[in-house]
Amino acid sequence: MKLETLHKISYGLYIIAAVKDGKPNGQIANTVFQITSEPPTIAVSINKNNLTHEYILASGRFSVSILEKGAPMQLIGNFGFKSGREFDKFSGIKVKNLADGTPIVLDYALGFLEVKVVNQFDCGTHTIFFAKVIDAEILNSAEPMTYAYYHDVKKGKAPKTAPTYIREEDGKESEAINGEGPMQKYVCKICGYVYDPTKGDPDNGVSAGTSFAKIPDSWVCPICGADKSQFLEN
Ligand code: FE
């Protein structure tokens, strides 16, 4: 079976946000889709281990921010690869708060939905929430980010908790030179990005052939924004 076939299914990229005890949390999701138009109903698949899952269960409400193509990896990294249990995802983020406290992320959103959970389905690792659209707004005319664009152009990865995560084939990551030495690869323990010295990170000023030790301390993970201390030998 070729699991990569599943990569050919197209999706968008969204921030799902909810509130519990006055505290907001949010996460990236790609599995938002419309189920019916009358009444307007959507579904989203959320990992049971995610804090947002707990918040949606508690409030029965959430928001969907539709991300635009220009959304930076930093934003996607913060919402997609970090946990609200140890990181304040909303610091410095433009948010609209609804009367019940449900947050709506406005940064790099071209529009949003405000929804109320009407049903849910236990799907093992994930819950599919079915939700009625209470309100919906278009904020600007930007193009929506697609999951393919995120992977192909922005070189994004899927976190292990994503419904669409596929394990990389064993050994694929370790083809090149491993072990101690300047060509040692390092992996970001937040998002799984692998720094390969033979390639460097030219988009962020690190030329090919730069060992991990020689990268300036100001450099951060191009996927999630974690600093160098979050990397381990791969
Ligand atoms: Fe990272």
Structure description:
The chain has 234 residues and is mainly beta. The protein is 10% helix and 33% strand. The chain has helices at 51-59, 73-81, 147-152; strands at 14-20, 23-29, 32-37, 40-47, 61-67, 95-97, 103-105, 109-123, 126-138, 186-188, 194-195, 231-233. The strands form three sheets. The chain has a seven-stranded antiparallel sheet. The chain has a three-stranded antiparallel sheet with strand order 11-10-12, with no helix packed on it. The chain has a two-stranded antiparallel sheet with strand order 6-7. A hairpin with a 2-residue loop joins strand 1 (14-20) and strand 2. Residues 169-179 have low confidence and may be disordered. Bound molecules: fe (iii) ion. Fe (iii) ion binds at residues 188, 190-191, 193, 221, 223-224, 226.
Short description:
With 234 residues, the protein is mainly beta. The protein is 10% helix and 33% strand.
